[in-house]
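Example complex used in Figure S2.
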Amino acid sequence: MNDAFKALSDPSRRKILHLLKKQDLSAGEIAYHFNMTKPSISHHLNLLKQANLVDAEKKGQQIIYSLNTSVFEDVVTWFMDFITKDEEGDKR
Amino acid sequence: MNDAFKALSDPSRRKILHLLKKQDLSAGEIAYHFNMTKPSISHHLNLLKQANLVDAEKKGQQIIYSLNTSVFEDVVTWFMDFITKDEEGDKR
DNA sequence: TAGTTATTTAGAAAATTATCTAAATATATA
DNA sequence: TATATATTTAGATAATTTTCTAAATAACTA
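Predicted assembly (184 residues):
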């Protein structure tokens, strides 16, 4: 899960996730939303992919990126652990 | 919230949060759990404090650190946004 | 097949972050 | 007041991350 935290620490990558929440997008369509070169975006997409926060599927000439929410669920569980109060008798 | 994501991206800082979940601790007690100098730990504590993930209170010679869960809640909300399915008629 | 489009890979430069040692500050105590 | 303890600040170095340009790969299209 360290990869996920690392991946989430960058604002551009979080913006990519927000874009993908609305709809699946090709690498080029994602890059269009940023003031950054395509190789830089490609690098960010790669980190998101390695963290299992997005999936990539080749479709003809394009690569379509989509959200993968499974790791999001793991991370939420991690956070809930902090918010949740310990019950009496649940000392560890 | 960017500070929080940045702060959470480091494993040592996440370990500090875990220690503080169990009980409040002084800077020295926290440092004791790491193979790292006290100034380095102090730096990490400072980032956590700036992100409002921990609170610090001076008590005599020591500084006692404790969890501040308010930002955790914000971050969980952020994540829930990705996991939660859009309802029909909730198009945005 | 040659040219065009979409995307990635390679390698370097710039920016940021983590860590260290040494010194400073603040509090407690003999 | 002098000394010891707890922690931070300052400043330097090392490591990591972000971003770029140039080149490579892969898939379409005339």
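The radius of gyration of chain A is 16 Å. Chain A has one domain: 2-69.
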